Amino acid sequence: MTVHTPIETRSGIPRWSIGLIVFVLLVGAAYVGSNLSGTNPPIAGAPSGSPGAGGDSAAALAIINTAGCKACHGPDLAGVPPTFPDLHGLQNGPTVDNLAQLGKTHPTDWMNIWIAGTDPAVSDPAMRKGMPAFGGAPYNLTPAQIETVVQYLLTLK
Amino acid sequence: MTRKLRPYDEPPRHRRSLIPNAPDSAALAFLVVAALWLVAATGIGVLAAGERLFPDLLKISFSIPFGSGIGVEVSQATADPAFVDALVFGWLTNVALSAIFFVTPRLTGRRLASDALGFMGLGAWNLAVAAGIVLLYVKGASGVGPLAEFPLPVKGLALLGLLAVNGAFWRTVLPTRSIGYVSLLYYGIGLLALLGLIALATIPAVFSLGTTNDRLLWAFTARGIVTYWVLGAGLGTLYYVIPRVTRNPLSSGGLALIALLGWLAFAGLSAVGALVDPSVPYIVTTLGQAGTLLLLAPVFLAVTNLVGTIRGSWALLLSPGSLQFAVTALAFLIATALLESVGALRSVQTLTAGTDWALGVSLLGLLGSATFAFYGFADHALPRILRRGYGGAMLAQAQLWASFIGVALASLAMIGGGLVQGSLQSQGASPQDVSGTLFAFRILAAGGLGLVSVAGLALIVNLFLLYTEGRPVEAARVAGEPLAAGQ
Question: Do A13 and B110 count as a contact with CB atoms less than 8 A apart?
Fold first, then answer.
């Protein structure tokens, strides 16, 4: 037979708990207030080219981390303009002057050419301003890897 | 002179039913199965940690011969989800259901409405989890997404099991027509949430929502399962075990209700915080992450309430047993909530994305707070279910310390490793440098998980010895341990 053995409780709510609740709600409001606008990164594993998704983000982030892009462009790839350009908002073409011409001549694949850096049109050190040629040694990124990164960058608004 | 017995002189034989129907039989069955899952889960965890250390060496891929066309792959991609699934669905869910079936009759004063339904749930659920984990290793048989990978038939079986255990619980609780004690509220909400979330995770297998939406849905359900089910069942169990063991009344019923309402609100918001994608409005994700941040408050209130309940009985901490486990669970609980709050901040997320940090914090919550809460339950319930005295103090101590050191080592190594990994990656360190630096952290994590596996073995040995060599309940009572059948 099961014996009914309830647990006693002392009643009453400590006064400090009311203060804590108010404090917590204020902290929550402050957090939301300071993070009202921005863009979420893509969810890991979203397919390339699908609406609302920007390529295989997990793979892209792995390549970005491995290649060391964040060393110059920052952990959130927002850069330190003008020395290190912001990598957000590249959907409509280059945002820096030295790539304007490249964007006009190669409107669909200017990023691939620029990141690879092996095309003579973009290999001039004065033009590259320290940007490594990731298609060459020691990085040796394949065209497919560069495309993965490009698809990811196109999602950053 | 002896007289030969005729057939009708023989006493009627006692027929044993196929499904045990004694009180607490379902609770005991769930507990035994859970202990086996704990060892299996931590074993898979050691393998997963090994895969992180030597991803190429331990990557095994082969096809089953005789033209079956079935490919099998053992790699980091399969070991990580198998570990989390075995931990959450194998160990934690089974032991939580054991706690629910043990506690509910005692708080309501009614026998579990149907032990048979409980056993049906046990069979269906564990068959589904075992099949789902095996299918993770079969190429193309499972989807992708933490805690949501199982194929449709497996999820269907799991849902059947959950319907059965929900039926057993609600048929016991509803006729009492009262809200009852706070533990029952946590259990009821947790059970319904688990059923609903698994049903939600099944939708992509029936209607295609698009890959991104599927993944978002799975991210939501995975987070919801942890916040509503694992955290809820763990808190419900601690609210039962601590007043029982100390024999003190709960410090504050009002505070317990506020903490419950806070948990109810913020656990749901926290699941919304898992919706991280450009297709989700930024403000929605921010609100969800605020939920994760604020989940610290109800956890803090619950821990304060339970610590207040122990007041005056601290000496019990000196003897091995339930209270030691429960207090350790409280410490891990507050540490997990703090780290999850910190991890919810967007700046921290930028640093720790794609690193070992997230798994480290998960381990602290799943193997730390939840596991220790259920260790406390097991230590309290086993002598009462088996009606035998608990003589395994040394084994209980071994279980406590192996688990404590193992969990602390594994989770802190992964959290620290994650921070170092994020920091090195943001500085543009080469992958060789990152792997070399993380090697030491990952060795520690593998060692820690091995220790937790040893603790699981200690629980099984303790259970076996208690069953085979434990003293009857009266003898234990003389020794000073009150073991009234109903308590």
Answer: no
Domain assignment of residue B68, given as a range: 24-145+153-163
Q: Specify if A39 maps to a domain.
A: no
- The alpha carbon of residue B228 is apart from the nearest alpha carbon of chain A, in Å, by 20
Return the minimum-mean-pLDDT range out of A114-123, B29-38, B165-174, B287-296.
A114-123
Q: Tell me what ipTM this predicted complex has.
A: 0.72
Chain B partners of A8 at a C-beta cutoff of 8 Å?
243, 249-250
Residue B95 inside a domain? The answer is yes
Q: What is the pLDDT of residues B25-72, one digit of tens each?
A: 899 999 999 999 998 998 888 888 888 788 777 777 777 766 666 767
- Which residue, chain included where needed, has tokens 């608990």? B390
B188 residue type, one letter: G
Window 424-463 of B, Cβ < 8 Å to A: 425-431, 434
Which of B178, B173, B203 is closest to B190 using CA atoms? B173
Domain that includes residue A115, residue range: 57-153
B388 DSSP assignment: B
- CB-based contact B267:B231 (threshold 8 Å): yes
In a domain, A128, yes or no: yes
**Interface residue of B80, B426, B483, B487 to substitute, partner A, most A CBs within 10 Å:** B426
Residue B318 lies in a domain: no
> What DSSP designation does A119 have?
S
Contact list in A for residue B288 (CB cut-off 8 A) is: none
Mean pLDDT of B85-114: 92
- Sorted by sequence, the CB contacts under 8 Å of residue B195 that are 6+ apart come out as B159, B162, B163, B166
Whole-number pLDDT of residue B270: 93
Read off the pLDDT band of B484 (50, 70, 90). very low
Whether B277 and A53 lie within 8 Å, measured CB to CB: yes
B297 touches chain A (CB under 8 A): yes
Say if the Cβ atoms of A53 and B212 lie within 8 Å. yes
What phi and psi values does residue B138 have, to the nearest 5 degrees?
-90, 125
Q: B197 in a domain, yes or no?
A: no
Q: Which residues on adjacent β-strands are paired with residue A80? A: A84
- Count up the domains in chain B and report the number: 2
Residue A49 lies in a domain: no
CA distance A155 to chain B (A): 7
Residue among B173, B140, B52 nearest B447 (CA): B52
Domain assignment present for residue A120? The answer is yes
Decide which of B95, B129, B163 is a domain's last residue: B163
8 Å CB contact of B252 and A47 = no
Q: Give tens-digit pLDDT for B379-438.
A: 899 888 888 776 667 877 888 899 999 999 999 999 999 898 888 877 767 667 777 888
**Residue A83 in contact with partner chain B when CB distance is under 8 A:** no
Position B330 pLDDT exceeds 90: yes
**Could you tell me the pLDDT band of residue A53, with boundaries at 50, 70 and 90?**
very low
Number of A:B CB contacts under 8 A?
179
Average pLDDT score, chain B: 84
A41 touches chain B (CB under 8 A): yes
Task: Tell me whether A72 touches chain B (CB under 8 Å).
Answer: yes
pTM value? 0.79
Better-scored residue on pLDDT, B365 or B394: B365
DSSP track, B283-296 = HHHHHHHHHHHHTH
Question: Is B137:B78 a contact under the CB 8 Å cutoff?
Answer: yes
Q: Does B114 map to a domain?
A: yes
